[in-house]
Task: inverse folding
């Protein structure tokens, strides 16, 4: 039990930047799962409408297209944080730790640059008012893309800080970290 007036160590640890980013990454992944469920309902309604009335649900194509894009970018930050992005562990395992740090840093930098480019490309449409010509669904998709790309960049930076400043990871420590990230 913590002394009066002092937070417990587990409470303090839960508000550290890494813990906050981990929680945000998990939240966006859960939000993507909820969007997937909504997307399934929209698709079902469209199929039923086509069968029963002979007409599709108005705007279903736009909703589906934008929802898929939002789902991908909501999951991007979590995928980066869980080290689920493409990397060749076989080659990394053959390298000595100093060379592995350089390879990891290069990969993190390239991944972050990709997501920065995606965020920059969607920044202006995200700032445009929803009625600015593309519609509310497209505007929301641009906002989600910018937010998801930004979270992916933050997670690449976090991985770089953890991998490049820490001691040489072992398979056991990487597995323990992945288990800690599971929702």
Result:
């Amino acid at each position: 039990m913590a002394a009066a007036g002092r937070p417990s160590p587990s409470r303090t640890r839960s508000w550290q930047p890494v813990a906050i980013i981990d929680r945000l990454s998990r939240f966006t992944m859960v939000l993507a799962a909820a969007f997937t469920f909504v997307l399934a309902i929209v698709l079902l309604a469209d199929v039923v409408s086509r069968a029963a009335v002979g007409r599709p649900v108005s705007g279903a194509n736009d909703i589906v297209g934008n929802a898929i894009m939002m789902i991908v970018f909501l999951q991007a930050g979590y995928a980066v944080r869980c080290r689920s992005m493409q990397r060749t562990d076989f080659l990394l395992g053959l390298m000595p730790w100093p060379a592995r740090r350089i390879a990891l840093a290069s990969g993190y930098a390239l991944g972050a640059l990709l997501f920065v480019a995606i965020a920059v490309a969607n920044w202006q449409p995200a700032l445009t008012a929803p009625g600015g010509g593309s519609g509310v669904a497209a505007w929301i998709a641009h906002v989600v893309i910018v937010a998801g790309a930004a979270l992916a960049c933050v997670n690449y930076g976090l991985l770089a800080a953890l991998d490049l400043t820490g001691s040489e990871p072992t398979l056991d420590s990487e597995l323990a970290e992945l288990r800690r990230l599971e929702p």
Notes: The helical segments are 9-14, 17-52, 60-81, 89-94, 97-127, 136-165, 171-181.
